[in-house]
Specification:
Blueprint: E1 21-29, H1 55-64, H2 76-83, E2 90-93, E3 97-98, E4 103-104, E5 107-108, H3 119-133, E6 152-157, E7 173-182, E8 189-195, H4 205-214, H5 255-260, E9 267-269, E10 272-277, E11 285-288, E12 297-303, E13 330-336, E14 352-354, E15 383-385, E16 409-415, E17 419-425, H6 429-432, E18 436-437, E19 452-460, E20 463-470, E21 477-483, E22 492-496, E23 499-506, E24 509-516, E25 521-529, E26 535-542, E27 547-552, E28 555-561, E29 565-571, E30 574-582, E31 587-595, E32 598-605, E33 610-617, E34 620-628, E35 633-639, E36 642-648, E37 654-659, E38 666-669, E39 677-685, E40 688-695, E41 701-706, E42 715-716, E43 727-733, E44 736-743, E45 746-753, E46 773-774, E47 777-780, E48 785-786, E49 796-800, E50 803-804, E51 810-815, E52 821-829, E53 833-834, E54 836-844, E55 849-853, E56 856-860, E57 868-872, E58 875-879, E59 888-892, E60 895-899, E61 915-919, E62 922-926, E63 942-946, E64 949-953, E65 963-967, E66 970-974, E67 983-987, E68 990-994, E69 1003-1007, E70 1010-1014, E71 1024-1026, E72 1029-1031, E73 1041-1043, E74 1046-1048, ...
Parallel strand pairs: 1-2, 1-5, 1-6, 6-8, 9-11, 46-53, 48-54
Antiparallel strand pairs: 3-4, 7-8, 10-17, 11-12, 12-13, 13-14, 15-16, 16-17, 18-45, 19-20, 20-21, 21-22, 23-24, 24-25, 25-26, 27-28, 28-29, 29-30, 31-32, 32-33, 33-34, 35-36, 36-37, 37-38, 39-40, 40-41, 41-42, 43-44, 44-45, 47-49, 49-50, 51-52, 52-54, 55-56, 57-58, 59-60, 61-62, 63-64, 65-66, 67-68, ...
Length: 1058
Amino acid sequence: MLLAPRPALAQTTPEPADANRRQLVLVVRFAGDATGDGATGLNAAYPYGGAYRTQYESFLRDLNGEVSSKTTLQTLYSYIKTVSLGQCRLASVTPQYDASTGRVAYLTLPGSRGSYRASESIAADAVKAFSAAYPAFDASVLDGNGDGLADNVLVVPETGSSVPQVGDACWPRRSNLGAPASLGSSGVRAFDYTLVDTTHLAGVGTVAHETLHVFGARDLYRGGSAEISQGSNMPVGVWDIMAQHGGSKLMWPLAITRADCGWLPLDTVDAGTYTLAAPGSGRQAVAVRSPLSDSEYFVLEYRRANTDIADLSALDTSQEGSLMTIGGSGLLVYRVNPVAKPEGNKGDKDYVYLFRSGETGGPRGNGAGDIRHCQLSLGGRESLGSQDLSLGLEDGAITLSDGQNSGLVVRVTGQTDNSVTFAVTKPSSADAGLWTRATDGSGACPLPSTNVVASDVAASGPSVLQAVQTGVGSGSKVSAAVFDGTSWSSLAAVASGQDLKAVAASGSGRYVLTVAYGSPNRFTLYRQTGSGPWSSVASVTGSGNAGEVAVVGGTAYVLVEDGGVQAYRLDGSRLATVGAKVPCGYVAALAVVDVGGVPAVAVSDFSASSTGLWRLSGSLWTKVWSHAGAANGLSSAFVGQTGYLHVKGQDGSGGMVSVAPSGTPVYTALPSSVPAALEGSLAASGGSLYLAVSAQSGNAVTVWKASPSKLGTWGQVGSRVVGSSDNVGAVAAGTRVYVASVGGGAASLRWRDVGTAAEKPQVPTKPEKPVATKLTSVEVQGGPRTWNGGAHTPVVIVKAGNVVVPASGYTVSYKNNVDVGTAKVVVVGKGSYVGTVNATFAIAKGRPGWVAAGSGQRWSTGSAWQTGWLRAAGQTYWLGADGYMRTGWQDVDGQRYLFRGKENPYGPEGSMGIGWLKEGGFWYIFRRSGSPYGPVGSMGRGWLKDGGKWYFFDRSSGRMATGWVADGGSWYYLSASGAMVTGWLKEGGSWYYLDGSGKMLTGWYRVGRDWYWSDASGRMASDRWVGDYYLTGSGAMATSRWVGRYWVDASGRWTRTR
């Protein structure tokens, strides 16, 4: 591999001084490969003059160099810094580089090139090899954002002249290791990596492309890019490095790419006239939405072309004849589809698509046409789009991802070298028969725009209740908001960890039914009154997943799949069973049909491959209609006394069942003009039926209207509601029909005024009366219990039959629920529940051990709290009369002990100190086992011998003494370690003598053969006369010698003078 020539620079390219992000560069080769030894591979001599010593030094310049003139090619550092507007300054750290020789020390991987099937394995082995070769490397320099992970690891596998194929483990890409891996000596670990082999190092285009992925950029080329060179299959082409690049001919990323990296705010604007500036010199791009989509939007972006082809450092060069350069300056118009963002343009939908002339193909387009010259410009192609909603992509319309014309029109009205001015128009709801988004006066809507997985809608009077579920499993959240026709309430939490099943409304009361999956499943009905909070009303269990709630005749009814379908009626705060179970197998769909204010039950039985309708006769549900095939969608509405049921087949076909108070229900198939439906929802207003459907093909939502007397004839109402939704619900409120939908993870509510009032709820002539319900059982929850010193009050589930009674329907008390043995639960019904039910549960002896209690700890014997001394796990503890472990100083039986605190280096919290311990800056000794001085662990005082040495401890405080100590009328000296000193001691410039017992001597004393004399303070005398005796410089008394003119005899006494 031969790197392209570079302008002359210093041989060593330093790391950028202003770097705020860093990546580690790892150059590797495979087992058995000697490339890199001698003058080979990246260590080969640089062939273009003396600019660099090796090819690797040229590569370092491509990474860390700074563009300084037009003759300087772009580098990774300069490119990232430029396109991020200085926000990201990436340095490449190269520990394998030897600046004295210009060489790189290759890391050798354990496997051959052919043995690696995935880049993750190459990267993981590269990190391991680096950590083994450079164990002291401080990886903390690589963590620019403080998340504990290296900003990136660039792995460069040596591939010689063998260019990897697409899909090869060495093909350039960005990924992660799957789990963080150790990196050098610090706690910072490797996770994200990019891989670019040596055959792709010519120019920084590939390295820059992969590096942008690290910061959030998506691939903008389509999967399977074989046709790119033929000018097709290019949704973005040369306008973004994430789609295409020419090695050294680099371009600005699109504004959406820079926004994904967090480097560019993208303002959303309405119809109007705007001016945009060139990249880096002002607002470069804006977003605009079409009323036909709640999730997709369009970006209008100005790009200024560089026409000086001699400027090697410039971005967005335009050179006719060069397919890797842009076509000129102008305004780009492109669609952004957030649903496709995770896969970029490599999935079955494009995340980003640039509109151009000459496109062919269906809704997505073939990526054909003149992509290089797709810009709008003054004097060139000046406008794009059409307000004729019947036109498509091939007609020059600005379309949504499903091919529907957005109705946007963009026209350039002015242009300079540094800016473009344009006007954008979009269709109004009235002009295009559009459905209006439900927003308040400021255009706001509280419904979530991401992560929505389900939605349902209900109406009462002029208000609409919409509930949504975000997330799944334990992370799911159900919330709801109310739209009164002009303003929204805030989005209120209903439940978490549960799935949304259905909603209903009546008067000021609103209901949400959820399910928590388990064994069995638990269905909970929540209620909101007025603007109050949502609260749980009642819950029931069911063996299946299907559930429904509806208000009929002013009463809320709940259907639950439970070995059949059980109907319940809400009586106050309890769910009372209504009749026996509707017999069926696996339930595919449920609905409640309002027939003159009396409920009928519709069930799709997947097991029996049939759909039926049941009405209550006495205490039994009687089937009054059936249809072959299990419907996978049921919804209902009523007009007057007649109920209507929409039945959606699994193939998307459907029909309408009319159910009068008397007589046999009648089924009418829908005409072919109504699209085959993925989802369907029925509403009624002003004596007409309205059916909202999400089409199986493309998922566009439309609404269809029919007269109850002509159910075979349906006409579309307005244009489509939204471009794509796999969840749809329709209701009538006031004079409007509302459609709720979920598309691209966003929930929306749209409406259209139909000029007629919604149907009024019917009231049955003989409303059913609630009756008292007897409690039948109580189940203690939570499994076995063990003694813990407190009262056990386990949660209980109380049932009346198989219906779970709400907590408001009973009182519960406990007996004998503290000590080991059998405890009793007594439940007494209240309100509309009567009777008493009992249960027992065992309290077993627990395991001995520590139990955290408040801010302290107790030792449980399993049936009581230990007090006094405790020996556990080789340690000794003292527990007070209350059973709590004591720490710090404690006086027990006339002795003083020290029990270790929470943070100490000597042993567990609360354990008794033994031997030497330092506390509060002072040393103490606590008696060891077998000590003759006192109990083990008790604090030592006075003289104690330890380790063959004597120490003195204050007779009151127990603190170890150092220095001079007076005791028993004598002085002693203790060293800095506390050990008693004997023999000669020099202290403060004076000598002292301490005998074998440590006592300081004064007056005359003999040491060995010599006599010495110390004054009353113990200081030894020297070079002086003491009476008739002379003490020499060593302090020893002189004998049998002249001292000056004086003779001292053998006894040391002065006897004569000469």
